[in-house]
């Protein structure tokens, strides 16, 4: 899940409106389109409190959750709007500035058990990690524009192997940056969403993308019906996966589950998720707010 939340941000950024050079919306429209995420955030907060679901406060804070982070990213990106070909520069500046603050004492505060009574202190991990996730999103926007939607190169890149080479090179670059940052700057941390975590998420996702691009060399269909169903309902898949995970944690003592029981749960989980998402796609239901 630590890698999953970052991957969700990257997946959205690579194919976002900004990456496709579609004109940005006004900030009022951005707030309206983000309102479902805010509602989902409060719904998760109330539901977890209502059923006494185990929530690790150290992940995002007392009240914060990932839906609030997604809403904040959407609003900030629309308010501070830069062209896709320059968004990576802004994202890098945000990430470097945030990392400087972390290495000069902010990380000690975020990783400690110290919490005040104000709302920011109560949710310090979720609030400050917004800068990391926002920087990750902006870098992903420029990468998506560079790899897939650049008007000057898309026509030739899609018909040659140059796109695959670029993805592999970028993946190796971010893996190298991850190793250097993890060893010489700060260990990778999802809680703070530091620079090492951002480069790790980008490296993993670009590597997966590079491997998938190799499927062009294989005969037969390039995508399955199930892949298309997931692709058309990414938010629905994310919500359903969270609900199924919550149900498992409520009714199964996962810490003491045997290997056979764990394997059965994983198979049932994967089948249920795939069946329900396939059914949503078959019925034409799509959960998308922006």
Please provide a written account of the structure.
One of its GO terms (cellular component) is membrane. It is found in: Membrane. The chain crosses the membrane at residues 64-83, 89-110, 131-149, 193-214, 234-252, 264-287. The protein is an all-alpha fold. The chain folds into 2 domains: 3-222, no CATH class; 223-289, no CATH class. It is 72% helix and 0% strand. The chain contains 13 helices and no strands. It has helices at 2-14, 27-50, 57-60, 66-79, 84-111, 119-122, 124-149, 154-157, 162-184, 195-213, 225-232, 234-251, 259-282. The longest helix has 28 residues, at 84-111.
Write the layout of secondary structure elements.
Blueprint lengths: L1 H13 L12 H24 L6 H4 L5 H14 L4 H28 L7 H4 L1 H26 L4 H4 L4 H23 L10 H19 L11 H8 L1 H18 L7 H24 L8
Helix pairs in contact: 1-7, 1-10, 2-4, 4-7, 5-7, 7-10, 9-10, 11-13, 12-13
Keywords: Membrane, Transmembrane, Transmembrane helix
Membrane topology: Multi-pass membrane protein
Subcellular location: Membrane
Give a brief description.
By secondary structure, the protein is mostly helical. The protein is built from 13 helices and no strands. It folds into two domains: 3-222, no CATH class; 223-289, no CATH class.
Mean pLDDT: 87
**Global shape:** globular
Content-based structural category = mainly alpha
Give helix and strand order, one letter per element, not per position.
HHHHHHHHHHHHH
The largest β sheet comes out as: none
The fraction of residues assigned to DSSP E strands is: under 5%
Radius of gyration: 20 Å
Protein name: GPI-anchored wall transfer protein 1
Organism: Prunus persica
Membrane topology: Multi-pass membrane protein
InterPro entries: PIGW/GWT1 (IPR009447)
